[in-house]
Write a structure and sequence with these properties.
It is built from 11 helices and 11 strands. It is of the alpha/beta class and 338 residues long.
Length: 338
Amino acid sequence: MPDRGPPRVAVLICAFTTKRWALTRRAVESARAQSAAVERIVLCIDNNDELLAMAQAEWAGADGTPVEVIANRSAEHLAEVGAHQAAHGTTRRFGAGSARNTAWESVDADIVAFIDDDAEARPDWIEELLRVFADPGVIAVGGPPLPDYETERPAWYPANFDWVFGCAYEGLPTETRPLRHLIGANMSVRRSALAAVGGFLGSDFDDLNLCLRLAERYGTDSIVYTPRAIVHHHVPAERVTWRYFWRRCYFVNREKVGVLRQVGSASDLAAEREFVRRALTRQLASDVRRAAGGEPEALRTLGAMVTGIALAGAGNLRGNAEQLAVRLPSGSDRKMHV
C-alpha cells in the first residue's frame, strides 16, 4: 500500500459567549501556531448570532491555517439549562457535546483534536498528540489542561480535585500510558472511531460518555494520556471558591449517574474507585505528614478532600435514587398490574 503520509488533523473549538472573546481568539491563534501541520480549524458557535458574526469577521480570508466558523445546528440542549447550571454551580448554560458533533461532522480529517474556547495550546500540542497516534492501536489521545488562574489559588484546595474546574489533577499519569477518561479541554480522537460510536451523546459530560463508549468498542488500552501534550486552561476566580467546589463535587456525581445509565453496557466506575482509593491512602497520608511537619494548612486541605469525597458519594446516592424512581411504576400503575 502507498504511504499516505502523516495523518490529517483538524482542531475543533466550540464557543458560546462574547464574554470569552479574548480567550477564544487566543485559543484559535494557538491552534494556528502549531509546529505540526493542522489542515483546518473549525470554530463552532453555539446559538449566539453576535459571536458568530464577530468570529466570521475576525478570520475571514486570514492567511495561514484556515479557520472555518460555523453555527451549531442544534438548539435542543438549551432546554437543559437548569441541569447544566446545577452541575456546574454557575450561570453558564453551555454543554459542548452537540456543538462538537456539528464540528467534527463538518470535516474529513483523520484526527480531530478538541480544545476549549478558554484554553491555549502549546506550540507542540498537536506534535505530541501525533507521537502517540503513531501506534495504530491508539484511538484517542489526551493531555493535561494546566490551570491558568485568574486569581490566586486557595491554599486549602486539594491538588487531586483540580478536575472540579476542568484541569489536570494530582494522580494522573506522569508518563504516557492508557487512561480511562480524558479531559474534554484537551483530547483528540480518530474521526473514523468517533463516527463508529455515533459521536458525542448529549451536551454535558460529553468527554466522559465518549471515552466510555470508545473503551467498550476498542479496549481500554486504546485511550491514552500523554503529559507532554499541554494546553493552558483559564480558571476564573469563581471556580476556586468553596461554593463552586462543593456544588461540583455533589452535582457532577449526581448527574453522572444518568450518563452511566445512558451508555448502558459501556458504564464503568473503575476510574472513580481508583480516585477514591488513592485519595484515602496516598493523598491522606501526604497531608497528615505535612501537618505533622508544621504545615497547619494541610489540615484544611485534608478536610476539603474528605468533604469533597463525601459530597461525591452523596451525589451518587441521590442520583441512583432518582434513576430508581424514574424506573419504578407509580402507585396507580402498580395496581393495574396486580
